[in-house]
Amino acid sequence: MRKISEIIIHCAATPEGKSFTVADIDAWHRKRGFQCIGYHFVIYLDGSVHKGRAIEEVGAHCSGHNANSIGICYIGGCATNGKTPKDTRTEAQKASLVRLITELRRRFPNASVHGHNEFAAKACPSFNVKTSGLCDI
To answer: How far apart are CA 81 and CA 79, in angstroms?
Structure first.
C-alpha cells in the first residue's frame, strides 16, 4: 500500500447544478492523455460517493503530490456560466465530504487535508479548505 500523507480536495469545474459522472471525468482525463480518471473519489450532486482510481494506484490530480495523496473531486465548482469559480457544493455533497474525509483520516491518521489551490495557481476547489473545518476532522 502507498504511504498516504495528503488528502487533496478538488472541484470538477463544472456549472452549478449540472450533473456529471465518473465516466464523464474519465473521458475528459483520457482525452488529456491520462490512463484513466485521476481522482480516487467523486462526489455527485446528490452526495453519493463514487470510486474513481483505486486508492492503491497513484492518482493524477495534483502535480508533485500524486505519489502520496488521495484525490477527492466534487461535481460543480463553477457558477452557472461554467467559468466563474463558485462554491456550489450541495448540502448532501458537504455532508458526504465530511464522512469521506472522516473515513480516510481513520485509515490514514497522519494525512493532512488540503485544497488543490494550495498547490496550484487555481481556484479549485472553489472554497477555502483551511477555513472550512475539513482540516480539523
So the answer is: 5
pLDDT in tens, 70-93: 999 999 999 999 999 999 999 999
Where the chain has pLDDT below 50, the residues are none
Closest CA to 120 of 65, 41, 43, 55: 65
Q: Active-site residues: which are they?
A: 10, 39, 116, 122, 124
The pTM assigned to this predicted structure is 0.97
